[in-house]
Specification:
The strands form two sheets. This protein has a four-stranded antiparallel β-sheet, with no helix packed on it. A four-stranded antiparallel β-sheet has the order 5-6-7-8, with no helix packed on it. The protein is an alpha+beta fold. 19% of the residues lie in helices and 27% in strands.
Length: 150
């Protein structure tokens, strides 16, 4: 009986492998046609010049790590990166910057010049020197802040 089971298992394995090889060599992948889930964004890479309402006048090179968030408030450009917040003018001159406690997720500014930074599960408010003004309690291990708004 044991030999019969081994023979049947070996036979089944040979049949399955043969079917897979036949299916591949028969050209089936070529017969499938176009992928119905393919999303081509090539048409969106160029815009009609008549639709563009702005003109790029300067590029600023900043070596600040991976960008997490970006905002422009009162002609100040804020860039939030891994562990750092940088504020620059439109000419690229640094106004201020400070290190954050850990890798931030998002941020916003209030009317008084304070900066609220959202971390994974809590929010902290800073002044321009990087001093913590206040901090929320942790929202729990399953929380993830992705946006902060005032």
């Amino acid at each position: 009986m044991n030999r019969l089971v081994k023979f049947l298992l070996l036979f089944a394995l040979v049949v399955i492998v043969s079917l897979v090889i036949y299916d591949y060599w028969s050209g089936r992948p070529a017969r499938q046609g176009e992928n119905p889930f393919r999303y081509d964004i090539g048409d969106f890479r160029e815009a009609d010049p008549e639709l563009v309402q702005y003109e790029e006048y300067r590029q600023i090179s900043i070596d600040a790590g991976r960008a997490r968030d970006l905002a422009c408030v009162d002609d100040i450009i804020y860039l939030l990166t891994d562990g750092y917040l940088l504020a620059i003018t439109e000419r690229g001159e640094e106004l201020f910057g400070f290190s954050t406690e850990e890798d931030p997720q998002c941020f916003t500014t209030d009317g008084a010049g304070n900066i609220l930074i959202g971390y994974e599960n809590y929010i902290a408010a800073y002044d321009k020197e990087g001093n913590i003004i206040s901090s929320s309690s942790h929202a729990g291990e399953r929380a993830l802040f992705t946006s902060v708004a005032i």
